[in-house]
Amino acid sequence: MPQLPAPAYPADVRARLDADAKEVIARYPGSRSALLPLLHLVQSEEGYVSRTGMAFCAETLDLTTAEVTAVATFYSMYRRRPSGDYQVGVCTNTLCAVMGGDAIFDTLKEHLGVGNDETTDDGKVTLEHIECNAACDFAPVVMVNWEFFDNQTPESAIRLVDDLIAGRTVEPTRGAPICSYKETARILAGFPDERPGAVEASGGAGPASLVGLRLAKGEALPKARVVAPRDGRPKDGQPHDPSPSEHLSSHDAPQQTSASDPEHPAGPAAEEGE
Questions:
Q1: Which residues have a Cβ under 8 Å from the Cβ of 236 and sit 6 or more positions away?
Q2: What is the number of H-type helices and E-type strands within the chain?
Q3: Are 54 and 63 in contact (CB under 8 A)?
Q4: What's the chain's average pLDDT?
Q5: pTM higher than 0.70
Q6: FRET pair for 43, CA 20 to 30 Å: which of 19, 175, 266, 270?
Q7: How many CB atoms neighbour CB 104 within 10 A?
Q8: Could you tell me which residues are beta bridge partners of residue 87?
Q9: pLDDT tens-digit readout, 98-152
């Protein structure tokens, strides 16, 4: 059956969104280029991109709803149905998976009682697996509203979601303090984060991510660290003992992050045909 037209925003909400949209559109030489931030803007209103939000974007930018829908359904950052205050994404791509991401995701599904892309009954947490968080050197990685939580374990991930649900302060490994998903969406729409100290706290890549860049620039690096193999026996020296101020990846400072490694090693690969 054909759907009825999307309901309109209340007059006060529409007036506020019109003003914000006008500010966003003014940043671009062509109004169509403002579609992505406008989708974030309507997401900041309802916590997801509703049919009403897509109709608003289409009308504002003189597009068809089909054109807006094509974009909103292409990018995974746009939610298509109501979601929680905190979007908890667990990277289950190859490296994070073998480092413990699969174990973290399975643990959180059981602990929260939800499946992939589902929200807890209290509306606090939406859990989803993410293909890549672009932080392989800190695997396994969990993101909350697109802020990084590096070198996670099933136990630390449980503490993380419990703190979010309880309303306790949660600090990401890198990046600004955690805010709600709606607030995050407004920031992604291009509006400033007004929280005191939030901009200054917005970090970038960690030291492990920048080693290659520093080498490319010809910068001197600290004395090479020796990393112990997974059986714990160093080959040529002792493993590096990081200072509290260092933020190393799990590869620089091996951790017990995977449920299958090292207690259940895969063993040697069989020859082809065996």
A1: 226
A2: 10, 5
A3: no
A4: 81
A5: yes
A6: 175
A7: 30
A8: 126
A9: 899 999 999 999 999 999 989 999 999 999 998 888 888 888 999 999 888 999 9
Decide the pairing of beta strands 142-144 and 147-149: antiparallel
Residue with tokens 């109709």: 55
Smallest Cα–Cα separation from 25: which of 96, 254, 236, 17? 17
Query: DSSP state, 164?
Result: H
Tokens 């399975």, residue located: 106
d(CA 144, CA 100): 17
From the CB of residue 190, how many other CB atoms can be counted at a distance below 10 Å? Answer: 16
Count of CA atoms in the C-beta half-sphere (13 A) of 217: 8
Tokens of 100: 């413990």
**What are all long-range contacts of 221-230, with beta carbons under 8 Å and residues at least 24 apart?**
225/252, 227/251, 227/252, 227/253, 227/254, 228/254, 230/254, 230/261, 230/262
Q: CB neighbours (10 Å) of residue 164?
A: 20
Angle at 26 between CA 24 and CA 29, to 5 degrees: 115
Residue 216 one-letter amino acid: A
Q: What is the C-alpha to C-alpha distance for residues 208 and 199, in angstroms, rounded to an integer?
A: 22
The C-alpha R_g of the chain, in whole angstroms, comes to 22
If phi over 0 gives left and psi between -120 and 50 gives alpha, with beta otherwise, what is residue 175?
left
- What pLDDT, in 10s, does the model give residues 49-105? 999 999 999 999 999 999 999 999 998 889 988 989 999 999 998 888 989 999 999
